[in-house]
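Example 5.3 — Carbohydrate sulfotransferase
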Amino acid sequence: MAPRKQGGDGGARSSVLGFRAAATKASVRRHSALLPSVLTFAVIVASGGLLLMIEKGMLSNVETPPPLSNGRTLDHRSPHPDPDVDAESEILREIRNRTIRAMCRQKSMPHSVWALSPLQRKTLLQHVLVNDKHHFLYCYVPKVACSNWKRVLKVLSGTLANVDTKVKMDHHADLVFLADFSPEEVQHRLQHYFKFMFVREPMARLLSAYRNKFGEIEAYQRKYGVEIVRRYRKGYAKNAKLAGDDVTFTEFVRYLLDEDPERMNEHWMPVYNLCQPCAMEFDFIGSYERLESDAAYVLERIGAPENIRFPERQTWYKPVTKETLHYYLCSVPQKLLRELLPKYILDFSFFSYPLPNITTEYCRH
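Solution (predicted structure tokens):
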């Protein structure tokens, strides 16, 4: 089956997010109004975390049912697992699973792929990769190790010799997308295949996309950088000689505020919009922060040959450290960050990431 070439800017305006471009005062008020719900969610997660600690045996020896993954988190590919780290991962995964189940039970959430709007469904199906041999679906999220997962899929399908092969990654060739199938074929795979995805702290993912696309990729500088500078830098609206290679992080944030989350480029589109966790009902949601152990579990779960391991990060990779994220977030006016957070509030809440500390006191340090 010939893979279909995918685009990264798909989506629809009728998202469950209900956001519009933050170009008016009214939209800013709507965004600000969501912040109390964030505080409520934090309380829920905190209390749920305490309950979970009790259930997990940290405060007693009571055994509890397995998390949504229904299996171990480590296997032969991680030869020396740390029991403390393993227990912490189980707790965090269980909190995430319970949070998702609770939020997806709400009537306003889509409970199947077919309940999505046409453009929402198009975006989702274009981001779900299929492996029929091992019976799994993987919803890829840019800037969450998706290039390495695509390498794994190509090795599994026999189109790449091994995960360490030195070749420029083609993100569409030799890959099969769920969008390539008929509705009946899609439904069959949704019902019978193992479904997984990986998530990342939302602001770290945004910063990774910013540094990569505007600092290294000329095509993004020309397509997005030039327009961002013209739109948000005073005196540059009619400048015809812009390269777009010097976009500041603040200018990038201003650009995001004016974008419809469902029509964003995939590298900064909210994870919720890309993978629709309520509609997909994933069997496993791994995290970038625990990539090694979570990837090892998935490889075991899908029955990958033992000689296939998850690739190591490339030598040129620039990690987003806590210090780096602190520096960039604190370089942006607090007002803009407070307006930005509602755009990604479902990523924070669904995947149990705490909101970033952007107080003046924090940024002084």
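Remark. The radius of gyration is 21 Å.
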